[in-house]
């Protein structure tokens, strides 16, 4: 597979900037930011918005859920139970967004919420059998979409894209945290219930991206 129909040559194409984009870069440059840095941020943001929009559309079509609501089901496939505040921190969501998603998931019978036996102030969230089945259907939609988006990118290109995106995230995380931005947990940390194996540790790797 190759050439203009979606094969490996596709990623070698040049994509000229529009006049509006060039004008935007010039305007930002007047404020002291070089064009290369502006376009790195602009393209990263544009790619993220495109992927998020497509994932939302795919989940709406497959499940009638937002992508973020499906991510909650995804996380509940990886851990047996969680709490709303931990879901918010782990998935980089606001508390109101988590509450709205949980309301919808509970309405559909995909999760249950109950008070923790050891602390009645805490709410414990768990997926139902129907929720686990929905998570599986969402996984199928996720895999199909992501494969489609990365069609024509070589293994090396995917690895390099991942490396650069992860470096951007990790190198800027602490500054974002100090500025009060979400999330409020360190990278590579999931707010998991601790057991004897993880007691005294961070509890694992972040998931659900």
TrEMBL record:
* Pfam families found in the cross-reference section: MarR_2 (PF12802)
Q: Which organism is it from?
A: Tepidiforma bonchosmolovskayae
Gene3D superfamilies of this UniProt entry? Winged helix-like DNA-binding domain superfamily/Winged helix DNA-binding domain
Name of the protein this chain belongs to: Winged helix-turn-helix transcriptional regulator
Q: Which InterPro entries match?
A: HTH_MarR-typ, MarR/SlyA-like, WH-like_DNA-bd_sf, WH_DNA-bd_sf
Q: Identify the domain of life.
A: Bacteria
Q: Which residues form the HTH marR-type domain?
A: 34-170
PROSITE patterns this protein is in? HTH_MARR_2
